[in-house]
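name: query_chain
kind: protein
chains: 1
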Amino acid sequence: MVVRELTGGIYFGKPKGFGINEHGERIAFNTEIYSTAEIDRIARVGFETARKRQGKLCSVDKANVLEASQLWRERLTIIGAEEYPDVELSHMYVDNAAMQLIRNPKQFDTIVTNNIFGDILSDEASILTGSIGMLPSASIGQSGPGVFEPVHGSAPDIAGQDKANPLAQVLSVSMLLKYGLGQERAAERVEAAVKTTLDRGFRTGDIMSYGKTLVGCLHMGEEVMRSLEASLPARASLH
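structure:
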């Protein structure tokens, strides 16, 4: 799970823009800036998420060269010690984290990081699942409902062709149930239905492999529903 800060950092920091330097050359600049409040907010989201998983949180920064990352690491350490002593906190530089995600992804459970690092690492992590069409995501504020959706875009090049992988959308429902509504048992059933469907050999084109059954978007969705219905108590049914 990658917990990415979405509203601060270099994408929104000021000053930013274009200018001319002392040599008369055109330049462009952006500002990486975080307040303690911004860091504390996303830190708590990261710790709370880790608590619901395996109790391990890795904070990714670049504190060896960036002052913004030094404050980030300082605040994560303080909040971890004072508010979440039950969660195992570690720190990792972003360049090492990018390598370790490929080298040994199972060492990670929950990652929390800033906007630009999270933008890159979450896309890198998505391919570990086999396809970006497998990855759910959520944009969650401090209050009110979050937005739960696939991490990928709308794929207009295959629109209307029954080729899209629907599993990221289905798993976004699972994420909504678990992290938005606190319905962990229902979330587990949705995740299990996806796993069962894949174990039964059904694949859309983006994850197709030898010996499996190639299906379209609609058929894959129907197979997930069959797997989900089969897991429900006898008195329950889906319509």
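note: The two ends are 31 Å apart (CA to CA).
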